[in-house]
User: Fold these one by one.
Assistant:
Number 1:
Amino acid sequence: MAEPSTTSPPPPPPSTKSWADQAEEETNPSSTSAAEPSTPSLDELAIDDNNNPHKLLDDPDDSNIQAVTSGDTPYTSAATFEDLSLSPELLKGLYVEMKFQKPSKIQAISLPMILNPPHRDLIAQAHNGSGKTTCFVLGMLSRVDPNLQAPQALCICPTRELAIQNVEVLRKMGKYTGISSECAVPMDSRDSTPISKRAPIMAQVVIGTPGTIKKWMTYKKLGVTRLKILVFDEADQMLAEDGFKDDSLRIMKEIEKFNSNCQVLLFSATFNDTVKNFVTRIVEKKEHNKLFVKKEDLSLDAVKQYKVRCPDELAKIEVIRSYIFEIGENVGQTIIFVRTRNSAKMLHKALVDLGYEVTSIQGALEHEERDKIVKEFKDGLTQVLISTDVLARGFDQQQVNLVINYDLPLKYAAEYIRGRDPEPDFEVYLHRVGRAGRFGRKGAVFNLLCDERDEKLMSKIENHFGTHVKEVREKSVEDYKAALKEAGLLV
Ligand code: ADP
Ligand code: MG
């Protein structure tokens, strides 16, 4: 088993960024709330949910979002998409292509701030699955001048999977606008043209990962003089010391050099205190707006969390196979998260040897292989996907009802400090949980624990989010059934 334990020597820290194959954020164990901004009441921004006759889903409840606006611009929450003065082409995209009926809370609150002059910068935190993509995609599509063939909107994401997903959403939502887009992610096909030989980018919206975007900018193929809007999805990871802070800051500076009016949007479900303070400093220079959620309010009620105590690692595989897969057979798609690439390989082989059709994704795979595995899962051709944390954030597949934490996410640095208890990565945990229960759907998460270290990690997670994670007994069919029933996945 490749997973490091407290007694075996720790593996060497990885030398390069591994696209979220490991936890990538800082922690601030003290979690003081001293940095909480002063928070005017959101009542005037609240939207009335009671007049929605088609309440098939629980609304993703972002009612605890705290807004801090600067200056005296009054913003009114948008109860309908019409309230946002969107173009008819965009409205058609929302209703016909996306099949949306009305804005979610974060959309209702943030879109007026994004779309209306003076187009202030925005830091926006809202729950996983609450529809943040639509906020910035509509922002980009609305602010682009369709008659100007030059990059006007840029969105930077931590993984290729998320960049591709966001481009797909933008193309679908913007189908009737004629706005052009390009995905800036590395390709390993032998026939792909090297950037030095490519024509300059003409696409009006560019969405990609920081490495490729930086490269395109260095080669002067991606001009920034016409940029009106710069978006960071999963912004806390993009600006974390052990995430993509250097790249992100360099890109921001380069844009600022030519273009000081570019609106910056920072979106994520998580902003730990360290990142929050840093991010606030970045936008501080200009008047900006902020939307934050308290960490105790971040766990999704719609996704039920459970823990299973297993005597050893082998028992974890047995729990997955004989209990979770058996009892949860028809509950939808499942993602099993593992911490290391080796665990992904090992678990994949073990489940395939037992006759299960599973696929697995991790950062060491060829790019196109990664794309194929994700596509098969999104198309519903595969039911179970094993993943390292490459898919912990942002990945949106509504049919995912079950998440299994084969192991709990650890803070990177802490793992390598001898004699110190490893710290859980709270943010990655929350993002993993958030792969189920998209937009108010139901979901369940099983955390598999097998030693004292896991117990400690789990209780730290429970304390951090102020939630109680119920135990499901390892071999109790009734317990698994009860858990899935409680989660609304079994009748
Ligand atoms: P987040 O980035 O906040 O985690 P996403 O933007 O990925 O969430 O949205 C989650 C899901 O909710 C997506 O499948 C999206 O299509 C859906 N969704 C977003 N906004 C709406 C809406 N207004 N009405 C219905 N579904 C929506
Ligand atoms: Mg997202």
Number 2:
Amino acid sequence: LVNVDSILRSVIQTLHPLAAARHVNLRLEGMEEDSEVLGDQDQLTQVFTNLVENAIKYGPENGEVSICITAHSNEPTLRGPAVRIDIADQGEGIAAHHIPRLTERFYRVDSHRSREMGGTGLGLAIVKHILNRHRGRLRIESHAGNGSCFSVILPYN
Ligand code: ATP
Ligand code: MG
């Protein structure tokens, strides 16, 4: 049993230097006591590290990344109570035709930002793999020019 809340706090600490370098404000919202899920602490830490790192890298300098927990989310896709974590940035967004392919290994949107930022294109493939093992889901909502929101949905405890 792991506490999503405390995982997110530690991820924010770990990524603080990267956020500070880009003058990005990390905002954590919706903290609740009972955001516990059945899962592996290190693997879930990896999931949120990859997603928040992307939000910082692909969002604008001086921007804001919001991380919002909803503890008793009713998610039809999971058929039962769930914890949902939304990670939203103010970046250039992702065109619709790229979205289904983002979790493929080595897939990168060929924007100049992806190229200049470095990385291998494995982050989201790892996220998907770990979430599958937790019976979780990744939902991606984005509109080119309008920021992105990556939602992690995990079965509640
Ligand atoms: P790595 O995570 O291995 O360092 P990466 O960030 O390029 O490299 P992924 O995390 O798998 O790889 O992301 C794949 C691609 O999806 C990125 O290259 C980028 O084009 C796009 N992407 C991911 N997150 C965002 C985001 N928040 N906003 C815009 N584009 C994104
Ligand atoms: Mg990445």
